[in-house]
Amino acid sequence: MSSDQVRYLLHVCCAPCASASIERLTERGEDVTLFFSNSNIYPHQEYLRRLAEVERLARIFSVPLIEDIYDHESWLRWVSGLEDEPEKGRRCDRCFAYSLRRTAEKAEELGMQQFSTTLSISPHKRSASLFAAAEGLDGFVPDDFKKKNGFARSIALSREFELYRQDYCGCEFSKRASQRHHTRSQ
Ligand code: SF4
Questions:
Q1: What per-residue confidence (pLDDT) applies to 3?
Q2: What are the sequence ranges of the domains in the chain?
Q3: Is 158's C-beta closer than 6 angstroms to any atom of ligand 1?
Q4: What residue owns the CA closest to ligand 1's atom 4?
Q5: Distance between CA atoms of 143 and 157, rounded to whole angstroms?
Q6: Pick from 3, 2, 5, 13: which is nearest to 145 by CA?
Q7: From ligand 1's centre to the CA of 91, what distance in Å?
Q8: Which residue, judged by its Cα, is nearest atom 2 of ligand 1?
């Protein structure tokens, strides 16, 4: 790997989504560093559980991992007024903007030229909304990891590595919606 190779900071939402995304980027020859920046996740115990799995995945792929500060109060202020929005709605667009802005700032701080996010692998996330949230952020790469069966590959790798797969997106609002859904379907 040459010293002037472009460096790529990958925002990671969770280990399952990261698995196939890292695999694709490393196969492409990218110099990848993971960035766990997820102040949206609630409660903190869940945050720590997802972080531990990402740490394990980073060791599996031998890629560096940086953890951002966890500031859920700041995130709540950022999405204030949008608490009742459904998933894929305006609260999620704000949430994407929060994570992408923090990743752009970290990439600049580290002198890394490119960044993107594993969020695009999920069928629950509209890639177009993600890319719109990144507008104006220098260095954003619109990698759409759900293409070429990325999500199916993430499930296969999650099974292979026995990764924890959560049943809600991350914030308390998505957790409540997931619990309501489970109650109705019982
Ligand atoms: S549902 Fe997920 S993407 Fe939407 S606001 Fe909550 S944590 Fe963010």
A1: 56
A2: 7-184
A3: no
A4: 92
A5: 19
A6: 13
A7: 7
A8: 169
**139 secondary structure, DSSP code:** T
175 Cβ below 6 A of ligand 1:
no
Query: How far is 50 from 104, CA to CA, in rounded Å?
Result: 22
How far apart are alpha carbons 61 and 160 in whole angstroms? 13
Q: What is the pLDDT of residue 31?
A: 97
94 ligand 1 Cβ < 6 A: no
Answer whether 91 contacts ligand 1 (Cβ < 6 A): yes
Ligand 1 neighbourhood includes 87 CB (under 6 angstroms): yes
Note the pTM of the prediction, 2 decimals.
0.95
Q: Which CATH class is domain 7-184?
A: alpha beta
Provide the 10 A C-beta neighbour count for residue 145.
26
Enter the tokens of residue 147. Answer: 């293409």
Could you tell me the CA-to-CA distances from 158 to 95, 145, 154 in Å, in that order? 25, 15, 6
Instruction: Kindly give the number of the ligand 1 atom that is closest to the alpha carbon of 174.
Output: 1
Question: What's the Cα-to-Cα distance from 118 to each of 2, 12, 17, 77, 130, rounded to whole Å?
Answer: 25, 5, 6, 24, 10
Return the CA Rg of the chain: 16
- Below-70 pLDDT ranges, the chain: 1-3, 186
Q: How far is the CA of 44 from the centre of ligand 1 (A)?
A: 15
